[in-house]
């Protein structure tokens, strides 16, 4: 067994590898950039080495720095995780040439499966079913157009060096082919430096099925069953599950055997995934499931396979890299229950899923949901930087049935609270509870078709707002109620900085008002705060002008002109909308103007107090 390993990655996968390595007694070495100096994977490892500035091309993608760090720390092996250099054959070879152990497949296997056209030819020769299409050397526009006409529209143009949804175009008619080809080739050159394409028949009702395989240096290859990754957004996986819904034993046996054959064709060693595309229009059938590509690394979604098989794939990787055989035989592997995984991103669905960058002041995931697993590389207080993928956690649920796993996962996301950064948790809850997903009516276009229907609500429910408003008020302070009638009060508050009027039951309040309350509902989080001087929009009276937030009556004045005040000190109390609102000083300073007197009526926006900030 290895005694030490350097992890050439960051975030949750680095933490995941460290966890298993520590259990096995293997010393771990982390690498980090400037942005990751205080990251969880750095603090979790036994040793850490700084490898450069924050941009990945100056740190995590510089193979020479990583190999030098391994040498410097005496690490025996390098584990690449996924992404970054994990499928870079040249880096894998450089690691081996440096006398280090590469925790991954042989460089020749990476090369063999790295280009989609060469991989498809290799799979054809191995008897693995491939999607009807064209992958010839003649790349002239005329030949590609004639082949597309032969295949029949719609057809898919794919860059042979593509990945991550880039370099792909669906063409619905012959008239659109020329423009789509040029667009695809431009993107392929820009992203991969290679504009060679292949053509495939567009599959109706497509489902993404993949098989986890594992090989060792003793000639053994096993599969750990299949995963369904059909729920995708713009070719990026959103929810993964294992096993695949609707997969009968005969079809499973055929597809998994095809995956084993594919791995054997390249003498595969280590963890890998054979990805298939299935025509799900008539259910899953072996003759309608075709090889798509191979990922020569551990996958992001590997936890669902671990959950249904009870195996630790990182442990397998480390053992196989040490020269040991695969720990179990094929006949010893079986499926136990169901598992689902979602990728939790710091991004805002309401703004086109743009990344949400900043500090995680609140980071609470999952609650007390049974069968839950959280893989993350961040903790509360961590900074989410603009330099890396904004995935902050993987949330995985296991259950006896698909419905149990799905419901547990939705409940865990519903109970989570992340603030002030936005996340896609609300979007994930909507996807998990969508009738088609719940009924396993899956295909890769489901999210695209539903569009805005899967976006979470912009505001919390009235009930949640009322409970939060009650939590912000001083108990027992009632106004405008009568006997034998429901007790209600109405007040103005700031919801994420915007003014809202809320009707609530003040009897649910607390003895002392809180500064703010986080509302977590349906995976979404909002902040409700008392109305503060300066008006709507979250203004904080930064210029010292304290304005009336609404029409009302001054019932108390607590300061005098010329008086020195401190930040947070009460200035006056306004009664409006059956509630009392305390206006406070935004900073230390001196009262230079006072336009309020007890009992006086004021209009909305009126200047009540002016404070000059202390030097």
Walkthrough of the structure:
Helices cover 26% and strands 31% of the residues. The chain is of the alpha+beta class and 615 residues long. It has six domains: 100 residues, Rossmann fold, CATH 3.40.50.20; 158 residues, D-amino Acid Aminotransferase, Chain A, domain 1 (2-Layer Sandwich), CATH 3.30.470; 70 residues, Dna Ligase, domain 1 (2-Layer Sandwich), CATH 3.30.1490; 118 residues, ATP-grasp fold, B domain (D-amino Acid Aminotransferase, Chain A, domain 1), CATH 3.30.470.20; 58 residues, no CATH class; 69 residues, RNA polymerase II/Efflux pump adaptor protein, barrel-sandwich hybrid domain (OB fold (Dihydrolipoamide Acetyltransferase, E2P), Beta Barrel). It has an eight-stranded antiparallel β-sheet, with helices on both faces. A five-stranded parallel β-sheet has the order 3-2-1-4-5. The radius of gyration is 29 Å and the shape is elongated. The termini are far apart. About 3% of the residues have low confidence.
Q: Indicate the CATH architecture of the largest domain.
A: 2-Layer Sandwich
The overall average pLDDT, rounded, is 90
Terminal Cα span: 65 Å
What overall form do the CA principal axes indicate? elongated
What is the highest CATH level, the class of the largest domain?
Answer: Alpha Beta
Helix content: 25-40%
């Amino acid at each position: 067994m290895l005694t030490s390993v350097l992890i050439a990655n960051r975030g949750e996968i680095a933490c995941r590898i460290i966890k298993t390595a520590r259990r096995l007694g293997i010393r771990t070495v982390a690498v980090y950039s400037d942005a990751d100096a205080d990251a969880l994977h750095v603090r979790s490892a036994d040793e850490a080495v700084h490898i450069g500035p924050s941009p990945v091309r100056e740190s995590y993608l510089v193979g020479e720095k990583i190999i030098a760090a391994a040498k410097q720390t005496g690490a025996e092996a390098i584990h690449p995780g996924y992404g970054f250099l994990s499928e870079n054959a040249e880096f894998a070879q450089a690691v081996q040439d440096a006398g280090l152990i590469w925790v991954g497949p042989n460089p020749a296997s990476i090369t063999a499966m790295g280009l989609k056209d060469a991989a498809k030819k290799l799979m054809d020769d191995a008897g693995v079913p491939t999607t009807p299409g064209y992958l010839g050397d003649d790349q002239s526009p005329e030949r590609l157009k004639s082949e597309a006409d032969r295949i029949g529209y719609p057809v898919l143009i794919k860059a042979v060096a593509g990945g991550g949804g880039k370099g792909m175009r669906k063409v619905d008619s012959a008239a659109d082919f020329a423009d789509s080809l040029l667009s695809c080739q431009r993107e392929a050159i820009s992203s991969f430096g290679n504009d060679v394409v292949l053509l495939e028949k567009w599959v109706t009702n497509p489902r993404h099925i993949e098989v986890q395989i594992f090989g060792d240096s003793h000639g053994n290859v096993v599969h750990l069953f299949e995963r369904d990754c059909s729920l995708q957004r713009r070719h990026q996986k959103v929810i993964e599950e294992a096993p695949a819904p609707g997969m009968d034993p005969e079809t499973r046996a055929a597809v998994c055997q095809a995956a084993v054959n594919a791995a054997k064709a390249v003498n595969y060693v280590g963890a890998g995934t054979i990805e298939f595309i299935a025509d799900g229009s008539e259910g899953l059938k072996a003759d309608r499931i075709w090889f798509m590509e191979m990922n020569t690394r551990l996958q992001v979604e590997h936890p669902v396979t671990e959950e249904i098989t009870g195996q630790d794939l990182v442990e397998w990787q480390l053992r196989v890299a040490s020269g040991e055989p695969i720990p179990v035989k094929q006949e010893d592997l079986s499926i136990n229950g169901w598992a689902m995984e979602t990728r939790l991103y710091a991004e805002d669905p309401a703004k086109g899923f743009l990344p949400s960058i900043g500090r995680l002041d609140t980071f609470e995931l999952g609650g007390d949901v049974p069968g839950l697993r959280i893989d993350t590389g961040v903790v509360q207080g961590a900074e989410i930087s603009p330099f890396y993928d904004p995935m902050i956690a993987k949330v995985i649920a296991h259950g006896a049935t698909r419905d149990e796993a799905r419901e547990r996962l939705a409940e865990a996301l519903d109970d989570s609270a992340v603030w002030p950064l936005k996340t896609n948790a609300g979007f994930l809850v909507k996807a998990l509870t969508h009738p088609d997903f719940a009924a396993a009516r899956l295909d890769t276009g489901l999210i695209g078709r539903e569009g805005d229907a899967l976006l979470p609500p912009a505001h919390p429910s009235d009930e949640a707002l009322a409970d939060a408003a009650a939590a912000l008020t001083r108990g027992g302070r009632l106004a405008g109620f009568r006997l034998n009638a429901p007790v209600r009060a109405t007040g103005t508050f700031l919801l994420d900085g915007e003014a809202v009027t809320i009707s609530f039951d003040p009897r649910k309040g607390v003895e002392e008002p809180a500064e703010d309350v986080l509302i977590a509902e349906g995976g979404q989080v909002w902040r409700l705060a008392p109305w503060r001087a300066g008006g709507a929009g979250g203004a904080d009276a930064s210029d010292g002008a304290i304005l009336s937030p609404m029409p009302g009556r001054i019932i108390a004045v607590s300061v005098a002109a010329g008086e020195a005040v401190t930040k947070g000190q009460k200035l006056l109390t306004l009664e409006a909308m059956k509630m009392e609102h305390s206006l406070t000083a935004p900073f230390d300073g001196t009262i230079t103007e006072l336009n309020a007197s007890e009992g006086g009526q004021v209009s909305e926006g009126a200047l009540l107090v002016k404070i000059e900030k202390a030097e």
